């Protein structure tokens, strides 16, 4: 029995069914939003100063943003 099998037995109840499907859905949604409004990338980017000023949701939304620098890059969508 491998380590991953033991971890799955112990913590299997924490699994989120369909997690990758929802992750891909949110990623496509943000991609389309960035095409429609390129300035919305600033809303999703990781900004430490804004996180410490109670915008904690930025920690989660940074995983869905296609670019880390606030500008939309179509090449990053296919990498």
General description of the model:
The chain is mainly α and 79 residues long. The chain has one domain. It is 51% helix and 0% strand. The chain is built from five helices and no strands. The model has no long low-confidence stretch (mean pLDDT 76).
SSE layout and pairing:
Layout (H helix, E strand, L loop, with lengths): L2 H9 L7 H18 L4 H4 L3 H5 L5 H4 L18
What is the typical, i.e. mean, pLDDT?
A: 76
- State the domain count: 1
Content-based structural category: mainly alpha
Q: How many E-type strands?
A: 0
Distance between the termini: 35 Å
Counting DSSP H or I runs of 4 or more residues, the number of helices is 5
Strand content: under 5%
Unreliable segments of 5+ consecutive residues: none
Oligomeric category? single chain
List SSEs in N-to-C order: HHHHH
> Looking at the structure, what is the overall shape?
elongated
For this entry, give a set of tags.
single chain, 79 residues, mainly alpha, 51% helix, 0% strand
Write a brief caption for the model.
With 79 residues, this protein is mainly α. It is built from 5 helices and no strands.
């Amino acid at each position: 029995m491998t380590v991953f099998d033991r971890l799955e037995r112990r913590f299997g109840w924490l699994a989120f069914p369909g997690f990758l499907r929802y992750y891909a859905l949110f990623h496509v949604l943000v991609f389309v939003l960035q095409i429609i409004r390129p300035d919305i990338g600033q809303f999703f980017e990781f900004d430490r100063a804004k996180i410490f000023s109670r915008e904690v949701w930025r920690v989660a939304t940074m995983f869905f943003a296609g670019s880390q620098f606030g500008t939309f890059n179509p090449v990053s969508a296919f990498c």
